[in-house]
Amino acid sequence: MIVLSGDQMDALMTDLRLYVPKSLQVLAMLNNQRNEHRKLPGTEFVVDAYPDYSVCMSRPISTSPIFPWGAFQGVVIFCKNAEKLRAVLDQEDFLDWSLKIKFFAVSKLDVFPVVVEKCRRKLDAQTIARPDSIAHVFLLHPSYLEKTELPRGYRLGVLSPHHAEQVNEEWKYGNERTLEYVRYLISNGFPTSAVFTDEDELVAYILHHADGCMFNGFVRSNHRRKGLYQVVNHDLTEKVVALGQPAAWVYVMDSNQPSQNSYRKLGAKLVDPEVFCVDWIEYTPHKLMGK
């Protein structure tokens, strides 16, 4: 196992670009980590070998004074070879299996089955995984997205830290623990897009995860069907690509047809699920159940 230094991260990003879209999540995380303001505190990146790696993983540092928040104590994995990943997970120094681990948006086709197999061999832990569910991945780039004009009576802007509470309250998964994360993203250089009325009411927005994914797109109910969702998605896509990502990306659950339709209407490109789609795995040692 090798913990990557800054120069090694730069070299790895060059190689990871060859594997987009599958590598886009780890690539974006490395790109953000190399920026002084867009780092995710308490996170490090490890590989099985360097420079000829087969597995690259971001993982939380449990001893860090700043440990990633709540649901974002996640592990993100890119692998070129499933058998290499299986061997890596059998090395006890890659992950601390005494902790709760959320494997965040991992590739359903190769990473997911290997990780589930490893977790379920741990008889002193519970593993939550959904073999039949997937989240589809859409790619977004200004060169092919439809641009929607902002209607009269609205202005385009960005989120400020004082908007964090509203955003967290309106987020389907928002809770006390996610509020700090939302506030951190808004305050530390992660791009956002927002639409305000002429009276300065925040009515639509979208944010950018530390893993490069655009998330939590929202439009207040009395301002829907005006193209505001398309406006903030296009605006944030431009900002994300300007940061050095090959493309912006989102994941949408298979059951969420309205969001899928919105991204198709926008012109986003659906990645063939036989090539790349994602899901989540939650691993909890029995001794930590309920904590």
Automatic annotation (TrEMBL):
Keywords for the protein's UniProt record, in alphabetical order: Acyltransferase, Transferase
The keyword Transferase appears for this protein: yes
Domain N-acetyltransferase: 154-291
Pfam families: FR47, Gly_acyl_tr_N
Gene3D superfamilies linked: 3.40.630.30
A GO-annotated cellular component: mitochondrion
Molecular functions (GO terms): glycine N-acyltransferase activity
EC number: 2.3.1.-
The family this protein is said to belong to: Belongs to the glycine N-acyltransferase family.
PANTHER family with a match to the protein in the record: GLYCINE N-ACYLTRANSFERASE-LIKE PROTEIN, L-COA N-ACYLTRANSFERASE-RELATED
Protein name, as recorded: Glycine N-acyltransferase-like protein
